[in-house]
């Protein structure tokens, strides 16, 4: 068996601290205030649905809420001789608190985490959260807390549940246990069962603005020189920015844009595609595919008259030439959708990575020629 300390975590972004290890959260003050107000008013829901795009801090918020609920005095508790205790104004907790330390070590008995597990035989993460994980969650909530206090569970992420797991979760939400709070992280709430959504209070998080994203990246130790480029390419997602940094995303995007300074530089395109091949380069392939999709989306915005700030030198000139008007923007948007679908199909059948990348680049060049010839 793999030692516990060595088991990978499906909810960890390589190159960044795990959300339970992250003390600060940027850009989501309104969501924190909603939690504090619910607790202060004695209206704490049994389930929160923390929704929004990937990588913007949903899991970090869930862990902050969990630490707060398990370490802060109960709302309305006795303040001794001096009357009512003041209500907390943030979800910040004492890093030296014993419960906080146990949470960091994944040894707090009043906290339960539901996520995709590690298959020790296959040496890979399971692809979904199954019914067994939800049954374990139900068993956790059926146990009495040692001190009679609140119990908290985090489910990260609801999008990864099987149909059976989703139905099991619904049954739990229909009969919520007392003194228990379930924090459900979800990237696409519209895809959840409506009956699950209706039994949770929604906390909808938005992508971070440039200032908050820069602060969040600085907290992860990201190179300040790359922050502006990462902020543009990651669209407000700290997680995506960290992934891009780990795979040298800014340099890859600069190389991608450089292919179209005139017509497609085919030798450079071949070198770029071949750089995504080989064992251990799966992350680079994922990053390059995502960056191609980002490039097309930014071309579409340029054609629509909403050109984004330049992410790398020379991008603005390339975008202005390739997307001179609204019609061109629409063409690029349509191509983005078509290439995304083709990419998913190609990867499902294990198409050779360089062939996949070259196919996408040639399709872009063909479209650019058609726009230029109009």
Q: Biggest β-sheet: count, sense, barrel?
A: 5 strands, parallel
Mean pLDDT: 88
How many E strands?
7
What is the alpha-carbon Rg in Å? 23 Å
Proportion of helical residues: 40-55%
Weakly predicted, low-confidence segments: 1-5, 77-83
Beta-strand proportion: 5-15%
Distance between the termini: 63 Å
Instruction: Find the CATH topology of the largest domain.
Output: Rossmann fold
CATH H level, superfamily name of the largest domain: P-loop containing nucleotide triphosphate hydrolases
Any idea what the CATH architecture of the largest domain is?
Answer: 3-Layer(aba) Sandwich
- Please report the first level of CATH classification, the CATH class of the largest domain: Alpha Beta
Major sheet: arrangement of strands:
2-5-6-1-7
Encode the helix/strand succession as letters: HEHHEEEHEHEHEHHHHHHHHH
Characterize the overall form: elongated
């Amino acid at each position: 068996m793999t030692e516990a300390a060595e088991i990978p975590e499906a909810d960890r972004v390589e190159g960044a601290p795990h959300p339970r290890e992250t003390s600060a959260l940027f850009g989501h003050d309104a969501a924190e205030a909603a939690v504090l107000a619910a607790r202060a008013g004695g209206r704490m829901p049994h389930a929160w649905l923390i929704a929004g795009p990937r990588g913007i801090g949903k899991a970090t918020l869930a862990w902050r809420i969990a630490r707060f609920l398990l370490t802060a005095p109960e709302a309305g508790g006795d303040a001794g001789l001096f009357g009512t205790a003041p209500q907390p104004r943030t979800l910040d907790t004492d890093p030296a608190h014993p419960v906080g330390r146990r949470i960091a070590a994944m040894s707090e008995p009043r906290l339960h985490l539901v996520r995709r597990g590690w298959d020790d035989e296959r040496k890979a993460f399971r692809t979904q959260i199954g019914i067994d994980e939800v049954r374990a969650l139900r068993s956790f909530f059926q146990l009495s807390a040692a001190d009679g206090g609140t119990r908290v569970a985090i489910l990260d992420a609801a999008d990864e549940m099987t149909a059976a797991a989703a139905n099991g979760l619904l049954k739990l939400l229909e009969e919520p246990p007392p003194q228990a709070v379930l924090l459900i992280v979800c990237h696409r709430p519209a895809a959840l069962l409506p009956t699950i959504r209706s039994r949770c209070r929604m906390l909808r998080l938005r992508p971070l603005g440039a200032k908050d994203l820069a602060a969040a990246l600085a907290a992860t130790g990201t190179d300040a020189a790359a922050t502006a480029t990462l902020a543009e390419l990651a669209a407000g997602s700290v997680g995506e920015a960290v992934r891009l940094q780990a795979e040298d995303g800014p340099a890859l995007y600069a190389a991608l844009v450089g292919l179209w300074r005139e017509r497609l530089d085919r030798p450079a395109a071949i070198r770029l595609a071949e750089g995504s091949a080989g064992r251990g380069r799966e992350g680079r392939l994922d990053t390059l595919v995502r960056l191609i999709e980002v490039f097309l989306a930014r071309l579409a915005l340029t054609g629509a008259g909403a050109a984004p700030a330049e992410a790398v030198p020379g991008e603005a000139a390339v975008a202005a030439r390739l997307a001179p008007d609204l019609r061109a923007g629409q063409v690029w948007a349509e191509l983005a959708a078509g290439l995304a679908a083709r990419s998913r199909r190609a990867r499902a059948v294990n198409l050779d990575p360089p062939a996949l990348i070259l196919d996408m680049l040639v399709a872009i060049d063909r479209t650019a020629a058609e726009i230029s010839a109009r």
